[in-house]
Amino acid sequence: MGIFGRLFGKSQKYIYKELLDDYVTLLRVALFSRIMSKYKDHEGKKSQLIAGAILNYITCEKPTNEDGRLFLEDNRSFIEQETRKLIQENSEIRSAVEMLLLSEINLIAISTGDVSSEHIIDLSSRAIDIGVQIPVCNNPGEMYAGIVEFIDGFCTESDKRIASFVRKEGRP
């Protein structure tokens, strides 16, 4: 058990899981915000629907509400094309997607103990499909330090406040 685990009675695995969960939430919020800003010229809440659909596509998740489901049904090829285009044209978003996928995959592996789970395979395949490379890191400390360094440069204070609220309320 690491020093923090001994101090607080939690295992290192538990601490890593909690950190990764926080990182995933923060990266999702920041990416959603950045993607939505790229489509702010669309009318009404369409920019939110586009951003949500792109983020769900990246993370291999289904929409969590009926509006999102209907939007994806009608715009699947648009979302797939826009995701690839956004990642090709915006290195900051590409890097954030890489960090998000790295964090998601490690969170799933730590949570389930299964490094070959179907969701990890889906995320890895999606990374290839959209043209991103998930960083490889054999040292958990280096991985966390790299994620934190990226988050500090990418995420705004507003992103951090929203992510804090989302963590308290629970992610859908």
Describe the SSE topology.
Blueprint: H1 3-8, H2 12-38, H3 46-58, H4 66-89, H5 91-112, H6 118-130, H7 140-154, H8 157-169
Quickly describe the structure.
The chain contains eight helices and no strands.
Any key phrases for this structure?
172 residues; mainly alpha; 8 helices; globular
Instruction: Output mean pLDDT.
Output: 88
Total separate domains: 1
Radius of gyration: 16 Å
Tell me how many strands there are: 0
| Total helical elements | 8
Gap from first CA to last CA = 32 Å
Strand content: under 5%
| Helix share, percent | over 70%
Shape verdict: globular
**Sheet having the most strands:** none
| SS-based class | mainly alpha
Give the SSE string: HHHHHHHH
Unreliable runs = 1-7
Kindly describe this structure:
There is one protein chain. This protein is an all-alpha fold and 172 residues long. It has one domain. 77% of the residues lie in helices and 0% in strands. It has helices at residues 3-8, 12-38, 46-58, 66-89, 91-112, 118-130, 140-154, 157-169. Helix 2 crosses helix 3. The model is unreliable at 1-7 (pLDDT under 50).
